Amino acid sequence: LDPETFARESRAVINFLAGYYRDVEKYPVQPEAMPGCLRTLLPDAPPENGEQMDVILEEVWRHIVPALTHWQSPKFFGYFQANASTAGFAGEMLSTGLNVVPFTRAASPAATELESVVMDWMGKLAGLPDCFLFSGGGGGVLHGSTCEAVVCTLAAARDRALSRLSHEGILRLVVYASDQSHSTFQKGARIVGVPRSNFRVIPTSAASSYGLTAASVRDAVEADVASGLVPLYLCATVGTTGLGAVDPVRDLGELAREHGIWLHVDAAYAGSALICPEFHEYIDGAELADSVSMNPHKWFLTNMDCCCLWVASPAALTSALSTNPEYLSNVTEESAAGAGVVDYKDWQIALSRPFRAIKLWVVLRRYGGAGMRAYIRRHVEMARWFERALEADERFEVIAPTRFSLVTFPIRPWHEGDPGDDAVDALNRKLLVAVNGSGRAFMTHFMVDGKFVIRMAVGGAMTRMRHVQDTWELVREKAKEVGALTND
Ligand code: PLP
């Protein structure tokens, strides 16, 4: 690692990326890339001798960029965003450049302590109750993804429950989620040994805007208790993946407390909006939860990857996840005395971990709370504009209220007669394919009540109102082309 070469080649990469960001709007958001497209372009073995960075960047430009889906395009409205920003990139550079490995405090004191500070900062900004802050007896950790965070909380909940049951009790543990919860809960439950038949998917409906009701969870819990099972874990989502629906945290928290169930609040996407007071109502009752998570790498200007996980009882997490090989044991006086030392290896699955805290810290320092609130509100406003445009056009239907920045819609059955659900679904699929095929925008879909629904997730760092307005025009144009709109 020669510092001069490092400076020169890193500058070349930054210039390359600056050019990419300058022009990304002009590229088709989704490429036409056939499976195997790169294999035919690249040699089938690595070079024997190293090559120059400009040659490598030229190849990135010629072969890789054309086959990318451009997540940073201002016209990318698919899935949820993976925000990039100048501060997120600068923070990631610091993380990867310093390249320390804070698995124990001793392995990197500043990285560990910055993580604890940043987790308290984020918790305060998102309006979490004090019980999730280190200063309030809880604490937080940065994971790479919500999926990892969920597995860790499931393991903590399982071990807490098994300390009261015999080990065979694992066969009686039950996990509850809604039909809108992220699939990671099902996967996580399997990983920690909960029998597949003990995963309850509780239906939601339009009547509750696709949020859970405490009554429906209560029915499921009581039926399980009556048959000798042990309710273990309940997921409440603030901002579901498909529709942006919200589960009632307080009601579910009261039920969870009554039955000793671990309540996890998954705010992977919408957690970023919680920094605005107008969204705080959605986290009301969080003091009744055991854990909360959200992903700054989605909608908080923090480059991949970064997931915040807070727990009310760090001991519950660490007693499930800690291991103490001799070579990692702390020999310094303060850790030997156990003086509140956090060893983050005991808060996650892996041992090694990057210095993510510095990335989130740079984002928070560079944009501040006010800057981030303005950023979130701008997207919410753009999404609401799109929702109003749909509502004003009788040929479209808005499926669930746009609480954050996700708009969900199908084309309605059109003109005289009922074409039937299959025909309407086929038309909506055609519309999505036509929109994405144009290269002028990219959206994804979801199924709700058996119906195909198009999702438009607003939240790109470079997305402006004109992109949203152009996309509305594009949707209308393509709808006409696929034959949906007859009265325009
Ligand atoms: N939970 C929700 C509500 C999500 O929307 C997502 C991803 O979109 C996840 C969990 C999974 O997040 P990750 O990819 O960080 O594991």
TrEMBL record:
<keyword id="KW-0663">Pyridoxal phosphate</keyword>
<dbReference type="GO" id="GO:0030170">
    <property type="term" value="F:pyridoxal phosphate binding"/>
</dbReference>
<dbReference type="InterPro" id="IPR015421">
    <property type="entry name" value="PyrdxlP-dep_Trfase_major"/>
</dbReference>
<dbReference type="GO" id="GO:0006520">
    <property type="term" value="P:amino acid metabolic process"/>
</dbReference>
<dbReference type="GO" id="GO:0019752">
    <property type="term" value="P:carboxylic acid metabolic process"/>
</dbReference>
<keyword id="KW-0210">Decarboxylase</keyword>
<dbReference type="Pfam" id="PF00282">
    <property type="entry name" value="Pyridoxal_deC"/>
</dbReference>
<protein>
    <recommendedName>
        <fullName>Tyrosine/DOPA decarboxylase 2</fullName>
    </recommendedName>
</protein>
<dbReference type="InterPro" id="IPR015422">
    <property type="entry name" value="PyrdxlP-dep_Trfase_small"/>
</dbReference>
<keyword id="KW-0456">Lyase</keyword>
<dbReference type="GO" id="GO:0016831">
    <property type="term" value="F:carboxy-lyase activity"/>
</dbReference>
<comment type="similarity">
    <text>Belongs to the group II decarboxylase family.</text>
</comment>
<dbReference type="GO" id="GO:0005737">
    <property type="term" value="C:cytoplasm"/>
</dbReference>
<dbReference type="InterPro" id="IPR002129">
    <property type="entry name" value="PyrdxlP-dep_de-COase"/>
</dbReference>
<dbReference type="InterPro" id="IPR015424">
    <property type="entry name" value="PyrdxlP-dep_Trfase"/>
</dbReference>
<dbReference type="InterPro" id="IPR010977">
    <property type="entry name" value="Aromatic_deC"/>
</dbReference>
<feature type="modified residue" description="N6-(pyridoxal phosphate)lysine">
    <location>
        <position position="298"/>
    </location>
</feature>
